[in-house]
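ugh ok fine here u go
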Amino acid sequence: MGINRLSIGIQSFSESRLRFLGRIHSAEDSKNAIHAARSANFSNISLDLIFGLPDQTGASWIKDLQQALLFSPEHLSCYILTYEPDTPLDQKRRKCLFSPLDDRKTGELFSITQKFLAQHGYMQYEIANYARSIDLYSRHNRKYWQFHPYIGIGPSAHSYSNHVRSWNHRSVAKYIENLGQQKLPLENTEILNREQQIIEFIYLGLRQTEGLSMDEFYQRFGKRFDTVFSSTIKILQNRQMLQTKKDRCFLTPSGMLFLDSIADMFLNHDIS
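structure:
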Protein backbone atom coordinates (compact mmCIF):
# COMPACT_ATOMS: atom_id res chain seq x y z
CA MET A 1 0.00 0.00 0.00
CA GLY A 2 3.04 2.28 -0.12
CA ILE A 3 3.56 2.61 3.65
CA ASN A 4 7.33 2.73 4.18
CA ARG A 5 7.75 4.19 7.66
CA LEU A 6 6.57 3.06 11.10
CA SER A 7 6.47 5.13 14.28
CA ILE A 8 6.36 2.91 17.38
CA GLY A 9 5.24 4.30 20.74
CA ILE A 10 7.84 2.76 23.04
CA GLN A 11 7.77 5.57 25.68
CA SER A 12 10.19 3.67 27.95
CA PHE A 13 12.02 0.36 28.23
CA SER A 14 11.45 0.42 32.01
CA GLU A 15 8.53 -1.66 33.27
CA SER A 16 7.95 0.61 36.28
CA ARG A 17 7.81 3.73 34.09
CA LEU A 18 5.44 2.09 31.65
CA ARG A 19 3.13 1.25 34.54
CA PHE A 20 3.35 4.83 35.82
CA LEU A 21 2.40 6.13 32.37
CA GLY A 22 -0.57 3.75 32.25
CA ARG A 23 0.69 1.89 29.18
CA ILE A 24 -0.70 -1.56 28.51
CA HIS A 25 2.40 -2.90 26.76
CA SER A 26 5.60 -4.24 28.31
CA ALA A 27 9.23 -3.52 27.43
CA GLU A 28 9.37 -6.98 25.87
CA ASP A 29 6.35 -6.14 23.72
CA SER A 30 8.23 -3.07 22.47
CA LYS A 31 11.28 -5.08 21.53
CA ASN A 32 9.13 -7.68 19.76
CA ALA A 33 7.35 -4.96 17.80
CA ILE A 34 10.65 -3.51 16.59
CA HIS A 35 11.96 -6.94 15.61
CA ALA A 36 8.70 -7.67 13.77
CA ALA A 37 8.94 -4.38 11.86
CA ARG A 38 12.50 -5.16 10.78
CA SER A 39 11.48 -8.70 9.82
CA ALA A 40 8.76 -7.20 7.62
CA ASN A 41 11.52 -5.24 5.83
CA PHE A 42 10.74 -1.79 7.19
CA SER A 43 13.95 0.18 6.78
CA ASN A 44 12.60 3.45 8.21
CA ILE A 45 11.50 3.16 11.83
CA SER A 46 10.91 5.88 14.41
CA LEU A 47 10.72 5.24 18.15
CA ASP A 48 8.83 7.50 20.58
CA LEU A 49 10.27 8.00 24.07
CA ILE A 50 9.13 10.11 27.02
CA PHE A 51 11.31 11.75 29.67
CA GLY A 52 10.77 14.08 32.61
CA LEU A 53 9.06 11.46 34.79
CA PRO A 54 9.06 11.80 38.59
CA ASP A 55 12.44 10.93 40.17
CA GLN A 56 13.98 10.27 36.73
CA THR A 57 17.76 10.74 36.67
CA GLY A 58 20.17 11.42 33.85
CA ALA A 59 21.59 7.92 34.20
CA SER A 60 18.20 6.21 33.94
CA TRP A 61 17.23 8.33 30.93
CA ILE A 62 20.50 7.55 29.15
CA LYS A 63 19.78 3.87 29.78
CA ASP A 64 16.50 4.22 27.85
CA LEU A 65 18.29 6.03 25.02
CA GLN A 66 21.01 3.38 24.89
CA GLN A 67 18.41 0.64 24.70
CA ALA A 68 16.67 2.44 21.85
CA LEU A 69 19.91 2.83 19.90
CA LEU A 70 20.54 -0.91 20.08
CA PHE A 71 17.83 -1.18 17.40
CA SER A 72 19.47 1.49 15.18
CA PRO A 73 16.23 3.44 14.57
CA GLU A 74 16.36 5.89 11.69
CA HIS A 75 14.41 8.45 13.73
CA LEU A 76 13.66 9.23 17.37
CA SER A 77 10.99 11.41 18.97
CA CYS A 78 11.85 12.30 22.58
CA TYR A 79 8.98 14.10 24.29
CA ILE A 80 8.89 15.82 27.66
CA LEU A 81 6.09 14.42 29.82
CA THR A 82 3.13 16.80 30.05
CA TYR A 83 0.13 16.44 32.33
CA GLU A 84 -2.88 17.03 30.12
CA PRO A 85 -5.93 18.31 32.05
CA ASP A 86 -8.45 15.70 33.20
CA THR A 87 -6.31 12.71 32.23
CA PRO A 88 -5.83 9.94 34.84
CA LEU A 89 -2.18 10.98 35.24
CA ASP A 90 -3.12 14.60 35.85
CA GLN A 91 -5.76 13.55 38.39
CA LYS A 92 -3.12 11.61 40.33
CA ARG A 93 -0.83 14.65 40.20
CA ARG A 94 -3.57 16.91 41.57
CA LYS A 95 -4.15 14.45 44.40
CA CYS A 96 -0.41 14.67 45.22
CA LEU A 97 0.05 10.93 44.67
CA PHE A 98 3.49 11.74 43.23
CA SER A 99 5.79 14.74 42.83
CA PRO A 100 6.45 15.87 39.24
CA LEU A 101 10.07 16.36 38.23
CA ASP A 102 11.05 20.01 38.66
CA ASP A 103 11.80 22.20 35.65
CA ARG A 104 15.53 22.41 36.32
CA LYS A 105 15.99 18.64 36.30
CA THR A 106 13.75 18.30 33.25
CA GLY A 107 15.91 20.88 31.50
CA GLU A 108 19.01 18.87 32.34
CA LEU A 109 17.42 15.76 30.77
CA PHE A 110 16.62 17.79 27.65
CA SER A 111 20.27 18.87 27.36
CA ILE A 112 21.42 15.29 27.94
CA THR A 113 19.16 14.17 25.08
CA GLN A 114 20.62 16.72 22.67
CA LYS A 115 24.23 15.91 23.52
CA PHE A 116 23.86 12.12 23.72
CA LEU A 117 22.03 11.76 20.41
CA ALA A 118 24.40 14.19 18.65
CA GLN A 119 27.32 12.06 19.82
CA HIS A 120 25.62 9.03 18.28
CA GLY A 121 24.94 10.56 14.88
CA TYR A 122 21.41 11.93 15.25
CA MET A 123 20.54 15.44 14.10
CA GLN A 124 17.96 17.44 16.02
CA TYR A 125 15.65 19.17 13.54
CA GLU A 126 12.79 20.03 15.93
CA ILE A 127 12.52 20.33 19.69
CA ALA A 128 11.56 16.67 20.17
CA ASN A 129 12.67 15.08 16.89
CA TYR A 130 15.98 13.58 15.79
CA ALA A 131 17.03 11.77 12.62
CA ARG A 132 20.17 10.07 11.32
CA SER A 133 20.13 12.19 8.13
CA ILE A 134 18.13 14.94 6.45
CA ASP A 135 16.34 12.51 4.15
CA LEU A 136 15.04 10.69 7.25
CA TYR A 137 13.26 13.74 8.69
CA SER A 138 9.58 12.94 9.24
CA ARG A 139 7.66 14.35 6.28
CA HIS A 140 4.45 13.63 8.21
CA ASN A 141 5.46 15.83 11.17
CA ARG A 142 6.86 18.62 9.02
CA LYS A 143 3.52 19.07 7.25
CA TYR A 144 2.06 20.28 10.56
CA TRP A 145 4.91 22.69 11.26
CA GLN A 146 5.01 24.16 7.74
CA PHE A 147 1.27 24.69 7.16
CA HIS A 148 0.96 22.12 4.41
CA PRO A 149 -2.54 20.66 3.97
CA TYR A 150 -3.28 17.32 5.58
CA ILE A 151 -6.26 15.02 5.98
CA GLY A 152 -7.08 13.29 9.27
CA ILE A 153 -8.80 9.92 9.01
CA GLY A 154 -10.37 8.29 12.07
CA PRO A 155 -12.07 9.44 15.28
CA SER A 156 -10.61 12.70 16.72
CA ALA A 157 -8.37 13.18 13.67
CA HIS A 158 -7.72 16.75 12.52
CA SER A 159 -7.50 18.09 8.98
CA TYR A 160 -6.13 21.39 7.67
CA SER A 161 -6.26 23.27 4.37
CA ASN A 162 -6.35 26.95 3.35
CA HIS A 163 -6.44 28.23 6.96
CA VAL A 164 -9.39 25.98 7.76
CA ARG A 165 -9.00 23.38 10.50
CA SER A 166 -11.57 20.65 11.13
CA TRP A 167 -11.75 17.66 13.40
CA ASN A 168 -13.73 14.44 13.53
CA HIS A 169 -15.99 13.13 16.27
CA ARG A 170 -14.17 11.57 19.20
CA SER A 171 -16.88 8.97 19.57
CA VAL A 172 -16.22 5.88 17.46
CA ALA A 173 -19.97 5.17 17.40
CA LYS A 174 -20.79 8.68 16.14
CA TYR A 175 -17.97 8.48 13.59
CA ILE A 176 -19.32 5.20 12.18
CA GLU A 177 -22.90 6.47 12.27
CA ASN A 178 -22.02 9.52 10.14
CA LEU A 179 -20.15 7.43 7.59
CA GLY A 180 -23.11 5.06 7.40
CA GLN A 181 -25.27 8.08 6.53
CA GLN A 182 -22.81 9.10 3.79
CA LYS A 183 -21.78 12.17 5.83
CA LEU A 184 -18.34 13.39 6.75
CA PRO A 185 -17.85 12.64 10.48
CA LEU A 186 -16.96 16.24 11.36
CA GLU A 187 -17.47 17.48 14.90
CA ASN A 188 -16.45 21.06 14.16
CA THR A 189 -14.56 23.45 11.87
CA GLU A 190 -12.70 26.71 12.46
CA ILE A 191 -11.25 29.31 10.14
CA LEU A 192 -7.97 30.68 11.50
CA ASN A 193 -8.01 34.48 11.59
CA ARG A 194 -4.91 36.61 10.96
CA GLU A 195 -3.88 36.68 14.63
CA GLN A 196 -4.20 32.89 14.96
CA GLN A 197 -2.17 32.39 11.79
CA ILE A 198 0.62 34.62 13.15
CA ILE A 199 0.60 32.81 16.50
CA GLU A 200 0.92 29.42 14.83
CA PHE A 201 3.54 30.62 12.33
CA ILE A 202 5.80 31.87 15.14
CA TYR A 203 5.22 29.01 17.56
CA LEU A 204 5.58 26.22 15.00
CA GLY A 205 8.48 27.93 13.25
CA LEU A 206 10.49 28.29 16.45
CA ARG A 207 9.94 24.62 17.28
CA GLN A 208 12.22 23.71 14.36
CA THR A 209 15.98 23.99 14.69
CA GLU A 210 16.12 25.88 11.37
CA GLY A 211 13.62 28.34 12.83
CA LEU A 212 11.15 30.45 10.91
CA SER A 213 11.62 32.21 7.60
CA MET A 214 11.41 35.98 7.97
CA ASP A 215 10.87 36.34 4.21
CA GLU A 216 7.91 33.99 4.35
CA PHE A 217 6.52 35.95 7.32
CA TYR A 218 6.59 39.09 5.16
CA GLN A 219 4.97 37.31 2.23
CA ARG A 220 2.16 36.01 4.45
CA PHE A 221 1.49 39.01 6.67
CA GLY A 222 2.97 42.06 4.91
CA LYS A 223 5.26 42.97 7.82
CA ARG A 224 9.01 42.55 8.33
CA PHE A 225 9.49 40.13 11.21
CA ASP A 226 12.87 41.55 12.20
CA THR A 227 11.44 45.09 12.21
CA VAL A 228 8.22 44.43 14.13
CA PHE A 229 9.96 42.29 16.74
CA SER A 230 13.36 44.02 16.80
CA SER A 231 13.28 44.77 20.55
CA THR A 232 12.28 41.20 21.50
CA ILE A 233 14.87 39.73 19.15
CA LYS A 234 17.59 41.89 20.73
CA ILE A 235 16.59 40.88 24.27
CA LEU A 236 16.64 37.19 23.41
CA GLN A 237 19.92 37.49 21.54
CA ASN A 238 21.50 39.12 24.59
CA ARG A 239 20.24 36.19 26.68
CA GLN A 240 21.74 33.80 24.09
CA MET A 241 18.34 32.20 23.54
CA LEU A 242 17.81 33.23 19.91
CA GLN A 243 19.84 33.90 16.79
CA THR A 244 19.18 35.34 13.34
CA LYS A 245 21.08 34.40 10.21
CA LYS A 246 20.18 35.64 6.74
CA ASP A 247 16.46 34.86 6.35
CA ARG A 248 16.14 32.67 9.45
CA CYS A 249 15.24 33.37 13.09
CA PHE A 250 15.84 30.37 15.34
CA LEU A 251 16.21 29.35 18.98
CA THR A 252 19.50 28.24 20.49
CA PRO A 253 19.63 24.85 22.26
CA SER A 254 19.11 26.63 25.60
CA GLY A 255 16.33 28.76 24.13
CA MET A 256 14.39 25.66 23.14
CA LEU A 257 13.80 24.97 26.83
CA PHE A 258 11.73 28.15 27.03
CA LEU A 259 9.76 27.96 23.78
CA ASP A 260 6.37 28.72 25.33
CA SER A 261 7.51 31.82 27.24
CA ILE A 262 9.58 33.04 24.27
CA ALA A 263 6.60 32.64 21.93
CA ASP A 264 4.51 34.68 24.40
CA MET A 265 7.08 37.50 24.21
CA PHE A 266 6.56 37.73 20.45
CA LEU A 267 2.79 37.44 20.68
CA ASN A 268 2.47 40.37 23.07
CA HIS A 269 3.25 42.72 20.16
CA ASP A 270 0.52 44.50 18.21
CA ILE A 271 1.13 43.81 14.53
CA SER A 272 -2.31 44.63 13.19
